[in-house]
Amino acid sequence: MLRDIQGHYVTVSTVGERVQAFVPAPLPPNPPIEWAPQLQEKFDQALLMLGRLDAVADLLPDIPLFLYSYIRKEAVLSSMIEGTQSSLSDLLLFELDEQPGVPIDDATEVSNYVAALNYGIKRLSDNFPISLRLIREIHSVLLSKGRGNQQTPGEFRRSQNWIGGSRPGNAVFVPPPAENVLDCMGQLELFLHDQPESTSILLKAALAHVQLETIHPFLDGNGRIGRLLITLLLYEQKVLKQPLLYLSLYFKTHRQYYYELLNRVRLDGDWEAWLEFFAEAVIATANQAIDTAKQLDNLSQRDKARITDLGRAASSATSVHHVLMEHPIVTSKLISEKTGITPATVNKSLMHLQKLGIVSERTSNKRNRIFAYSDYIQIMNQGVEL
Questions:
Q1: Which of 292, 342, 349 is nearest to 318 (CA)?
Q2: Domain ranges for the chain
Q3: pTM recorded for the entire structure
Q4: What number of other Cβ atoms are within 10 A of residue 212's Cβ?
């Protein structure tokens, strides 16, 4: 459905140029969303898939172990959209204080994303609502170290920014002036809190994501905050008991169409096209998450069965395997610290696991050797290389 422009333009002077900045209208859209049968069916299917994803999480024997790596995969993908080159293995090595295969700034940026997401989840778990305060707090963690830490972490911008182009005059999009940001974000907060009217959660997440991207309230990190907002909303409203839905891979794969749809919303009010895309993203991503969870569970059960055949050595090897499920790239020292098993026994267990083909050594050092749960990493890497 085509509507009028979803906001208005104001003329601003920035970097020596006069340009037209876009100020979005408050949510919800006016006139309301037109729920054609096809769109309604896709939203119904998306909600069904979220229910299945939630059910799969309940079946996983050790959800914290799965979440540890799954959140890191999302951090890598979300940061890739912003241009970082860090891989999942790079991030895991960085967290081990080992030298990653990319610039430290890239690995730091991805690590910050993990910290920001975990911070948001903890705050919500403590019953702190999604609000401007929480969004700023999460942003502060996101830009706490490395690249971007000079871009006023945790504060809404006080200067004009733009998207695409080398200067405002040739930018793809110019967000609202700095003096309009707080008002725009305040209106968004009211919408998140069901004012002026109640909005179903999946629709709310879809609309709020576009609105935050359009306001672009920070000097840096807006895309990552916008993608985090989707997951945090679904988690806050208990649509998902675990933070398992991340749309970064889908947005990354369909990047050009994603940007085109954002622009169509602003200029033509075509919210329905965006919502159809969003529902498709949820369906595809939930399917992929379910498949990944099943693959990792099958891998874990298969390898546990093989370890059982080790006889007397099985007990220690099982403990080592449990650590590998959380830290698929690890040092023998860390395993010893996590399990309380002596370094000598850890090394013997690792030798057993190497012979079984479960782990492989990534170094040739005599000390501080690094081991990888290669099949686990391979499953987690699906889609990351796109």
A1: 349
A2: 7-292, 309-380
A3: 0.92
A4: 24
- The values of phi and psi at residue 206, to 5°, are -65, -45
For residues 162 and 14, give the distance between their C-alpha atoms in angstroms, rounded to a whole number.
10
Yes or no: say if 368 and 383 are a contact pair by the CB < 8 Å rule: no
Distances (CA, A) of 257 to 49, 250, 277: 23, 11, 9
Angle in degrees, CA 134, 137, 142, rounded to 5:
125
Q: What are the pLDDT digits (tens) for 114-168?
A: 999 999 999 999 999 999 999 999 999 999 987 666 768 999 999 999 999 889 9
Architecture of domain 309-380: Orthogonal Bundle (1.10)
Measure the CA–CA gap between 76 and 246, rounded to whole angstroms.
11
Helix axes 88-95 and 63-81, enclosed angle (nearest 10): 120
Question: Omega of the bond prior to 24 within 30 degrees of 0, cis?
Answer: no
The answer to whether residues 175 and 161 touch, using CB atoms and an 8 Å cutoff, is yes
Q: Which residues contact 257 (CB under 8 A, 6 or more apart)?
A: 277
Q: What is the pLDDT of residues 35-85, one digit of tens each?
A: 999 999 999 999 999 999 999 887 776 787 788 888 888 988 888 888 888
CATH 1.10.238.10 holds for 7-292: no
Closest by Cα among 161, 160, 156, 98 to 132: 156
* CA 324 – CA 371 distance, rounded (Å): 9
User: Parallel, antiparallel, or unpaired for β 17-24 and 370-372?
Assistant: unpaired
